[in-house]
Specification:
Length: 100
């Protein structure tokens, strides 16, 4: 198995352009999503968890009152990789129906 390669700052900046709700913090991609209820956020976390499990790439998720925080990083690579962006795109697809 090939180890994921940490992306350069230039690659990250370029890949963030189509993902305007994401930002970089401490070598990770982060996003906060807002929902109409606590349970809607919990349902979203379950959907993200199923997607992450299928990709074998697991984000840190934080459930708060009507919001969910997401942190993506590839620990083996020590930062952000293509895998993080692939999961961020999948997460955006999950959010598309709710436009959160």
């Amino acid at each position: 198995m090939n180890r994921p390669r940490k992306l350069s700052a230039e690659d990250i900046a370029s890949k963030l352009i189509p993902l305007p709700h994401w930002r970089v913090e401490n070598e990770a991609l982060v996003r906060e999503c807002r929902f109409t209820s606590y349970l809607a956020g919990a349902d979203f976390i379950l959907a993200v968890a199923k997607t992450a499990e299928a990709m074998n790439h697991h984000p840190d998720l934080h459930l708060g009152w009507r919001k969910v925080g997401i942190t993506l990083s590839t620990h083996d690579a020590g930062g952000i990789t293509e895998l993080d962006f692939a999961l961020a795109e999948q997460i955006e697809a999950l959010l598309a129906p709710s436009k959160t």
